[in-house]
């Protein structure tokens, strides 16, 4: 099982899936988390992401290891932006390779849930008028 | 063969710890990082309350991490080097 975790303040440039694969994986599940144009009913220009990066990366890795025991998959790739991310842009990307689709879908769902509930990352809306973080 | 003499462990005393504050905690406490001389028998809750007595009334659901792992607010910090104050997270 391979785990790749990356947190970056640069736009996410995710290499497209290189097909054909070796034949080991029967399913690849991808998830893109995007910035919506409104947050809490308010029109926004971007979200600003803050993180305790060293802990966040360690915890993402631990969560991945734990969930891969429950949902055996071949490979998990996670990318998370920090800093400002404009509306429509991706803030998080997940790609999971597995033998069968079920484990990959379940791993994706649970991994994102855990990321949102436990990993030290915070987001603030940047309003269209004045672009200052408003926690 | 003689055993090496055992070195008595230093008693828990007063040393500096690095305190990190994020998100709303950073706004409320007014710093992102601070070195503080603290008694090692103190808990994270006691340390935070000394800095800001209204912390837990103003920020609900905050967690604490000791040396980058979630920990209890009520366990003495002992040999910790870093204590991070982590308000409710919202990644993704």
Fold and architecture overview:
- The complex is a heterodimer of chains A (135) and B (92).
- By secondary structure, chain A is an alpha+beta fold.
- Chain A contains 2 helices and 8 strands, in the order E-E-E-E-H-E-E-E-H-E.
- Chain A has a 4-stranded mixed sheet with strand order 1-5-7-2, with helices on one face. In chain A, strands 3, 4, 6 and 8 form a 4-stranded antiparallel sheet that branches.
- In chain A, helix 1 packs antiparallel against helix 2 (101-118).
- Chain B has helices at 23-29, 44-51, 55-58; strands at 14-21, 33-39, 63-66, 69-71, 82-86.
- A 5-stranded mixed sheet of chain B has the order 2-1-5-3-4.
- The relative contact order of chain B is 0.25.
- At the A-B interface, strand 4, helix 1, helix 2 and strand 8 of A face helix 1 of B.
Summarize the structure.
The complex is a heterodimer of chains A (about 140) and B (about 90). Chain A has helices spanning about 55-70, 100-120, and strands at about 1-10, 25-35, 40, 40-50, 75-80, 85, 90-100, 120-125.
Rg of chain B, Å, rounded: 16 Å
Shape verdict of chain A: globular
Task: Name the poorly predicted regions of chain A.
Answer: none
This entry's quaternary arrangement is: heterodimer
Helix content of chain B: 10-25%
| Alpha-beta content class of chain B | alpha+beta
Count the helices of chain B. How many? 3
Number of helices of chain A: 2
Q: Percent of residues of chain A in helical segments?
A: 25-40%
Q: What about the largest sheet of chain B?
A: 5 strands, mixed
CA-to-CA gap between the ends of chain A? Answer: 38 Å
Name the average pLDDT of chain B.
Answer: 90
Derived from helix and strand composition plus strand pairing, the structural class of chain A reads alpha+beta
β-strand percent of chain B reads 25-35%
In the predicted model, the low-confidence regions of chain B spanning at least 5 consecutive residues are none
Query: How many strands appear in the DSSP assignment of chain A?
Result: 8
What would the average pLDDT of chain A be, to the nearest integer? 94
Distance between the termini of chain B: 59 Å
């Amino acid at each position: 099982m391979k785990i790749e975790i990356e947190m970056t303040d640069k736009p996410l440039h995710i290499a497209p899936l290189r097909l054909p694969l070796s034949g080991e994986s029967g399913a690849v599940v991808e998830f893109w988390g995007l910035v919506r144009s409104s947050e809490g009913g308010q029109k926004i220009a971007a979200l600003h992401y803050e993180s305790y990066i060293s802990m966040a990366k360690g915890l993402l890795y631990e969560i991945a290891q734990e969930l891969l025991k429950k949902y055996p998959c071949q490979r998990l790739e996670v990318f998370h932006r920090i800093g400002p991310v404009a509306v429509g842009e991706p803030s998080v990307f997940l790609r999971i390779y597995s033998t069968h689709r079920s484990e990959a879908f379940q791993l994706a769902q649970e991994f994102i849930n855990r990321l949102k509930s436990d990993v030290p990352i915070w987001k603030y809306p940047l309003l269209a008028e004045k672009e200052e973080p408003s926690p | 063969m003689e055993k090496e003499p055992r070195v008595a462990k230093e008693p828990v005393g007063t040393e500096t710890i690095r305190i990190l504050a994020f998100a709303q905690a950073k706004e409320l406490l007014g710093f992102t990082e601070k070195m503080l001389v603290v008694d090692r028998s103190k808990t994270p809750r006691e340390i935070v309350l000394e800095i800001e007595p209204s912390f837990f009334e103003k920020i609900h659901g905050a967690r604490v991490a000791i040396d980058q792992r979630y920990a209890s607010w009520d366990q003495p910090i002992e040999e910790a080097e870093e204590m991070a104050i982590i308000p409710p997270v919202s990644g993704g």
